[in-house]
Design goal:
Elements: H1 10-32, H2 36-45, H3 57-62, H4 67-78, H5 82-92, H6 98-114, H7 117-132, E1 135-137, E2 143-145, H8 149-170, H9 177-193, H10 203-213, H11 221-232, H12 238-253, H13 257-260, H14 269-291
Antiparallel strand pairs: 1-2
Helix pairs in contact: 1-14, 2-6, 4-8, 4-12, 6-7, 8-9, 8-10, 12-14
């Protein structure tokens, strides 16, 4: 890539650097919250063994800006399970406190992927305790529990399928077939810690498990309401609506066709292969640029997935 900064006047490069730092700090603050700096130190600055090696596939995927696209896709896909959606609607506070949910989930992903094993175990224990209190009755009369192993596995497979799809399309260094299988196996290690039974270990197993869940999925009013909120009513200032709209379009563009009709989302293959894909490349490149500024060497912040 040509270094354009060497061809620009110093005043222009200085302003670009200031803008990059300012936007990067805003993204970090929004995603990581007020405790972001301290949490980052607990992840990157702490000594001790990690769950994953430096060259692990999970670190490549979870450290890439494509996670922003994958996270939004994961939320849409997860909402199609009526019991999982009932738990989100009743307990997650995604409408009242969407940024708090984002910050908690980003820390879970960062701690388990990049942090020391002791911190990863602590975060897993906290989530397990939180899940124990998430229970109730869905609008269709069926009881649900966030600790239900079957629901835990649905949340997991929808999540990693989305992260992998986004990384395949928009990642800076997409994985080969062996690397994609390695990513699924890495995430299975974390899933077992959360109590997920028989998580997939390969891409083929992942596809088979998602297919097995399809008869249980449906576009409930709660799921469609969540999709409207996530895609068209996000709690963002007007200045952020356009880039977020591009991000949302890229996320919808990665959903399989069978997942769109229940959520009343469009299927526009030509537009998605051209305009949406170009926009997705642009928005992820922009996020990657601002979050990789020299002043902030932490991995990019992660989007929400868990209820």
């Amino acid at each position: 890539m040509v270094d354009l900064s060497s061809r620009l006047p110093a005043v222009v490069t200085d302003r670009l650097a200031a803008l990059r730092s300012q936007v990067g700090s805003a993204v970090f603050s929004r995603v990581a919250g007020d405790e972001g700096r301290g949490r980052r130190n607990r992840i990157l600055g702490a000594d001790g063994p990690r769950w994953f090696a430096e060259d692990a596939a999970i670190k490549r995927v979870h450290g890439d800006a494509s996670m922003f696209v994958g996270g939004l896709r994961a939320l849409l896909l997860q909402s199609l399970h009526p019991l999982a959606m009932a738990g989100v609607a009743g307990h997650s506070g995604f409408r009242g406190d969407p940024w708090g949910r984002l910050q908690r989930t980003s820390y879970f992903l960062a701690a388990t992927t990049f942090g020391p094993a002791t911190e990863a175990e602590r975060v897993i224990a906290r989530i397990t305790r939180a899940h124990a209190s998430v229970r109730g009755v869905a609008p269709d009369g069926r009881p649900y529990s966030a600790s239900d192993p079957h629901l835990l596995r649905w949340v997991h497979v929808a999540e990693i399928d989305s992260f992998l799809a986004a990384h395949d399309r928009y990642g800076s260094r997409p994985l080969d077939d062996a690397g994609r299988d390695a990513y699924v196996a890495d995430t299975a290690f974390v899933a077992r810690k959360l109590g997920v039974p028989d998580p997939p270990e390969t891409v083929a197993e992942l596809a088979a498990q998602i297919e097995a869940y399809r008869p249980e999925l449906a576009g409930t009013p709660e799921a469609r309401d969540a999709a409207r909120f996530l895609l068209w009513e996000p709690p963002l200032p007007l200045t952020a609506r356009v880039p977020y709209g591009v991000l949302a379009a890229a996320s919808v563009g990665l959903l399989p066709r069978w997942a769109r009709l229940p959520l009343r989302l469009p299927w526009l293959p030509v537009t998605e292969a051209t305009v949406v894909r170009a926009g997705g490349n642009l928005i992820t490149a922009g996020i990657r640029w601002v979050t990789s500024a020299p002043r902030d060497p932490s991995p990019p912040p992660m989007p929400p997935v868990h209820p």
